[in-house]
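for the writeup, i need someone to sanity check this before i put it in the appendix. the sequnce is what the collaborator sent (i think, or maybe the updated version? ugh). structure was predicted straight from it, no edits. if anything looks off just tell me and ill rerun, i have time this weekend
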Amino acid sequence: MIWQPQQNRGRVSGPAAGVAHERIATRKERFLSMANMSKKILMLFAVLGLAAVASAKSYSIMLFEPSLLGGAELKPGNYTLEMKDEKVIIRAGKHVAEAPVKVETADSKYSSTTVRYRNGDGKYRIQEIHIGGTNLKLVVNAE
């Protein structure tokens, strides 16, 4: 066979031609599979990020009476209520109270956030919190 540089430019002829073609196809397949893997990893991080955000929901709550929650006393005022798993955290600045709760769902949404107290010993202990705009009822476990 006579070598002809114009005709064979970029091509491999002879028995090695099939091997070179297979090698190129394998590289392309690897690149595509790596691109798919990268997309899957990014999607996983996005889902995990959303799960982290969704796991801690927060609501605003106003207390009109000095209240006890989980042994901590909360003065009247505006607070942020956070739910994490089976625990409620109420905070305003440095004032933080937390307690285990049982999350229940009502048949319909509550029109406003309300707090139900237990007042047996002259102190207002938070017993239930109905979260306005949702059908969530938080029942505080007995201390």
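The first strand starts at residue 56 and ends at 63. Strands lie at 56-63, 67-69, 72-74, 77-84, 87-92, 95-105, 114-118, 124-130, 136-140.
thx in advance!!
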